[in-house]
Amino acid sequence: MNDPLEFAINLALETGELLQKYYNPAGVHATLKRDKSVVTEADLAADQLITQKINALYPQDGIVSEESSHFHTASHSSTWVVDPLDGTTNYSLGLPIWGVSIARLIDGHPELGVVFFPRLNELYFARRGSGAYLNHKPISTRAPNPTQPMSFFACYSRTFRRFNISVPYKPRIMGSSAYTYCMVARGSALLGFDVTPKIWDLAAVWLLVEEAGGSIQSFEELQIFPIETDIDYSTKSIPVIATATSSLLDKARSMIQKK
């Protein structure tokens, strides 16, 4: 019987190879969608590849993807949530931080997640109850250390436009929502915060952060999982905060205030 995690890892690697063929360090042509997010020819080709592969091996499963199906239906107990190209703006500008995110949800909750960043050669994955990994080596979040003053806060430029920030760590803007949370999971960032992530930005890394020992929640403490039926997820953005420890999560909320 096929192992869904092994399948997802291989699919992420194959999709990464496809995206590399479209990639150009000088940049690629991009257009704006109706929601003002960026899309390229590579996004659509990657989405087609992923959708075809899932449908071929898991025809009974549902798919929620940024570039095609935005709805989860109650008829599917297993659903794949996919971002074929996370960090499209970076990709279109020839920057290296971009990747593919693939998660499988059972009864609406993430059970496995894979995120692959081809230009960085970083493959992150997790299965519920089995830990988190980077390139097949275990990773974990890292609690604040008074002897290590150079901690950082992974975020977005819009974070500072919409919130008053008093976080005492150096801010770093990665340009990829998934990579923001991967930085927390691997122990590089103490805190990650994105203002407008969608479900396909979150499904895989949500599990990755949890399995790495971190805490991740909706900033407004809204329920994200299980995902809901008959909602257009392209219109649903929820600020999400991730931290190395649960105690830091509570502290971080007081350091991030809406303007």
Q: What does the model show?
A:
The protein is of the alpha+beta class. It has helices at residues 4-22, 41-57, 88-92, 157-162, 177-185, 199-211, 246-255, and strands at residues 31-32, 38-39, 62-65, 78-86, 99-106, 109-117, 122-127, 132-134, 137-139, 152-155, 163-165, 170-173, 189-194, 215-218, 240-243, 256-258. The strands form four sheets. The chain has a seven-stranded mixed beta sheet with strand order 3-4-5-6-7-8-9. The chain has a five-stranded mixed beta sheet with strand order 12-10-13-15-14, sandwiched between helices. A two-stranded antiparallel ribbon has the order 1-2. Strand 6 and strand 7 (122-127) form a beta hairpin. Helix 1 runs antiparallel to helix 2 and helix 5 (177-185) packs parallel to helix 6 (199-211). The mean pLDDT is 91.
- Report the average pLDDT across residues: 91
What gyration radius follows from the Cα positions, in whole Å? 17 Å
> Low-confidence spans: pLDDT under 50, at least 5 residues?
none
Secondary-structure element string: HEEHEEHEEEEEEHEEHEHEEHE
Number of helices: 7
